[in-house]
Amino acid sequence: MLLLLQIVLASVVFATVIGFVKNMFTYKASVHPRPQPIVPVPPRFDLQAASVRRQQGQQQDQGHRPARQTPSPRLNRPADRVRSAQLVGQGQEQLRLRQQQQQQQQLENHHESNQDLSYMERLLRTGCLLKATRANAVFAGATVLLESVDTSHETHGVVLNRELQGPALESARSVSRAVVDARAWIGRGGPHANNVVTVVHEAPALPGASQLGNGVCIGHYATLRHLEVDPAEVTRRNPKLRVLLGRVRWPNAEQLVSEIRQGLWNVSSTQATTQNTFVDCRSPRSATH
Questions:
Q1: What is the CA radius of gyration of the chain?
Q2: What Cα–Cα distance (Å) separates residue 209 from each residue in 142, 177, 217?
């Protein structure tokens, strides 16, 4: 009986303790409540608005859509590497063929140029007459009689139609007083070799005469010395005699051909005659220097 009473008393005490503890935790929870997590409320889905936005986005993307990039080929497979090597070889072969074609074209152009040069060199010969064009600022209107044509050495001639007057004529006395006293036609033969005197005439019997064309002869110091013996008699017998101081010269015939191609000279006649040398060859302007 005593044991039963002890068990009942222990149960009451245990129940009282449990109730006290429970009340204590309930009080703390009421004083300091635990914060509850905020769960976002999803917006209401509007099917019509979503459709409109999708259409607008498609319209904008049509004008600003980036180009599709082609993925670079991977040359990992043996077949791809072989194909790449073939393409490189084909490109090099095409480049080599193009270079050969260019070289062949250059050779053909050079051959045609050499043919033109050979033709012009055959056309240009001793006794040929050249007429300077307006593009030739130095010799405009001048007529040149070619005295020597050489493909490897100097080519030179004399201007026939630039008469000396004034102070320039007086300076000719330093070359030959007899020439001035004989009242012969004295002209400027060219800007080079001013100490060289050339006598153009039509008398093959004069000393030192060399025939350049049909009835046209040319001489130098031997003719000049003969002229100094009796200038009046020589000029009386040769009224068309011309004394020229200086000459025109080119390094070679190729340089002259180049100037003809540039339009600086025209070949007016391939052979000098008394008509085109003494009559038709008028002085366009007098040389005063």
A1: 56
A2: 24, 21, 6
For the residues 169-182, what does the mean pLDDT come to?
Answer: 62
Q: State how far the alpha carbon of 288 is from the alpha carbons of 17, 162, 171, 195, in Å.
A: 148, 9, 10, 17
Closest CA to 193 of 131, 147, 255: 147
Residue 30 lies in a domain: no
Q: Which domain does 243 fall in, by range?
A: 126-279
Q: What is the pLDDT of residues 74-98, one digit of tens each?
A: 555 666 666 777 677 777 778 877 8
Pairwise CA distance, residues 262 & 181, whole Å: 42
If 0-12 CB within 10 Å is exposed, 13-18 middle and 19+ buried, where does residue 163 land?
buried
Asked if residue 167 lies in contact with residue 234, where contact means CB atoms within 8 angstroms, the answer is: no
> Hey, which bits of 107-254 come out as E strands?
129-132, 143-148, 155-159, 185-188, 192-201, 210-211, 217-219, 242-250
Half-sphere exposure of 243 (CA within 13 A, CB side): 30
Give the chain's domain count: 1
For residue 160, give the CATH number of its domain.
Answer: 3.40.1740.10
Give the type of residue at 22.
K
Tell whether 116 is covered by a domain.
Answer: no
Q: In this predicted model, which residue has the larger pLDDT, 212 or 118?
A: 212
Say if residues 239 and 181 touch (Cβ distance below 8 Å): no
For residue 265, the surrounding DSSP H or E stretch is strand 265-269
Burial 220-255 (b: 16+ CB within 10 A, else e): eeebbebbeeebeebbeebebbbbbbbbbbbebbee
Cα dihedral: 117, 120, 126, 132 (round 10): -110
Tell me if 199 is assigned to some domain.
Answer: yes
Tell me if 150 is assigned to some domain. yes
pTM above the 0.85 mark?
A: no
Q: Please choose, from the candidates 151, 139, 133, 136, the residue with its C-alpha nearest in 3D space to the C-alpha of residue 246.
A: 139
> How confident is residue 244, by pLDDT bands cut at 50, 70 and 90?
confident
